[in-house]
Structure formats: structure tokens, C-alpha cells
Write a structure and sequence with these properties.
Helix content: 40-55%
Number of strands: 10
Radius of gyration: 20 Å
Distance between the termini: 35 Å
Strand order of the largest sheet: 1-2-3-5-7-10
Strand content: 15-25%
Length: about 260
């Protein structure tokens, strides 16, 4: 659809922002296309999404400066709302979204990656919020999500200085979960998405909701959110099958606890 492509591979959906000549920069048309693609995702057939950018140079280089340069105050605020509405839609999707960041993730690119649940990147990735150098603030959630992900001090440093960071620094501060070569990035993203997709879908969705909703309230309120979503998993086919299979396998042998290995 226009500047945004969609593929379905089993239970995994792949969204690609496809405007490589402009380094996948976000303008009103791209945001409109992206929203339409997100709205069209079949949530019954899809258990995880991957979001990436076309080409090897850029994930999303930012919002389109050519479009922004002539905006009035009111138009600027309205443009910010368009971006925020789309990114919030990504953030609140019931299913997990993985950002596979290939190359530049600046301004709106960094912001859209932060609206995803998990970020992995290629070794040529560059992250940053350069807006103050252009005379504006981050407008698509950057002042809010960056502080929540990497901490207030580091977020303020990056935003106030408009200083970009490379992949290794993004990993060090917790902005991304892993760094891979450009060739490895999409296979690793697909492998991660497949691992998520093989688990009970209701449980995974409830985990996402519990984490996201719990971050915005006190611990006492967050625990209640968790209790309700925990209870919501019971009496489902997945819960009955999962626990039934576990008990069946455990009948004739002593329970063994095996450390989780992330390979």
C-alpha cells in the first residue's frame, strides 16, 4: 500500500516502510499508509509483527523536514498528533512488535522504534533525537519514551545535545536488545518473532498488556492488573493444553529445572 509493504509468513507479519530514496522518512502520506496497514493486520492469524525499513542505509531517517519546514504552530501540533496517534497504535497493539532497525533511526525513526516492544539493530544503525538542532522538540513521543527506556539522565543528554549514538552504545544503554550484522538482522528478527509466536497467544497478549498498563500506575494498582490478566488465562484451551501436557510429561519423572538459554 503506497509507501508501506506488508508480508505474512505463518503467524508473523512483516511491515516494511518503503521509501528508500528518501531514507524512509516519514511524511503525512507514509504515516497514513502505515496506519492503514496496521489497521488491516489480521490479529486472529498474526501473533507477532516485525517493523523494518527498505534498504540497508536507513530504518527511518526521521520525519520529512521538507514537509515540516513550512508548518504553522497549529499545523505543527496537528502533525505531531498524526505521528503520535499512529505510534500509539503500534504500542498498544495486542500482539508484540519487533523493530528490526537497519541503519539510520533518527528523530521519528528513533521514536517509531521505541513504540515497538523489542528493538534489535544492525551494526551500522545510528540512533538519535536531533530535533533541537532544527529548532523543534521531538514530536512523536521521543521526550516520553526515551526517558522510560534508557533513564531520564541519558534521555535528556541525547535530546538536549542532539547527539547521535551508534549501535554498540544503543545496546550498552538498553535502547536495543541485540546488535547483528546487516545480513543477520532480518533472519534474527524472524527467529525471535517465531519464538514468540510458538507460545500461547492469549498469554503473550496478556503479558504485553500487563507490562504496558502496569508501567503507568502504582505498584499496588499494577499488581491488580496482573492478577486479573493472570486469571483471564485460565479456562482457555491454551492453559488447559499447556498445563495438561506438562503434567503428562512429568508423571513418570522428577521435575527438572533447566536454565533458560538464549541462543
Amino acid at each position: 500500500m503506497g509507501f508501506v509493504d506488508y508480508e505474512q509468513e505463518g503467524y508473523v507479519g512483516i511491515i516494511t516502510i518503503n521509501r528508500p530514496k528518501a531514507l524512509n522518512a516519514l511524511n503525512s502520506e507514509v504515516l497514513k499508509d502505515l496506519e492503514a496497514v496496521i489497521d488491516a493486520v489480521d490479529l486472529d492469524a498474526t501473533r507477532a509483527l516485525i517493523l523494518t525499513g527498505a534498504g540497508e542505509k536507513s530504518f527511518v531517517a526521521g520525519a520529512d523536514i521538507g514537509e515540516m519546514s513550512t508548518l504553522t504552530k497549529a499545523e505543527g501540533e496537528a502533525f505531531g498528533k498524526i505521528g503520535n496517534d499512529v505510534f500509539r497504535k503500534i504500542e498498544t497493539l495486542p500482539i508484540p512488535v519487533i523493530a528490526a532497525v537497519n541503519g539510520f533511526a533518527l528523530g521519528g525513526g528513533c521514536e517509531i522504534s521505541m513504540s515497538c516492544d523489542i528493538r534489535i539493530c544492525s551494526d551500522n544503525a545510528v540512533f538519535g533525537q536531533p530535533e533541537v538542532g532544527l529548532g523543534i522538540t521531538p514530536g512523536f513521543g521521543g521526550t516520553q519514551r526515551l526517558a522510560r527506556i534508557v533513564g531520564v539522565g541519558k534521555a535528556k543528554e541525547m535530546i538536549y545535545t542532539a547527539f547521535n549514538i551508534k549501535a554498540d552504545e544503543a545496546y550498552r544503554i538498553g535502547l536495543v536488545n541485540a546488535v547483528y550484522t546487516q545480513e543477520e538482522l532480518m533472519p534474527k528478527a524472524k527467529k525471535l518473532a517465531a519464538r514468540i509466536a510458538q507460545n500461547a497467544p492469549i498469554a503473550v497478549r496478556n503479558c504485553k498488556k500487563a507490562i504496558n498498563d502496569g508501567l503507568d500506575v502504582s505498584m499496588d494498582e499494577a499488581i491488580v492488573i496482573e492478577e486479573k490478566l493472570f486469571g483471564d488465562c485460565f479456562e482457555t484451551e491454551d492453559q488447559r493444553a499447556g498445563m495438561g501436557n506438562f503434567l503428562e510429561k512429568d508423571k513418570s519423572k522428577k521435575l527438572k529445572v533447566v536454565p533458560f538459554q538464549n541462543k
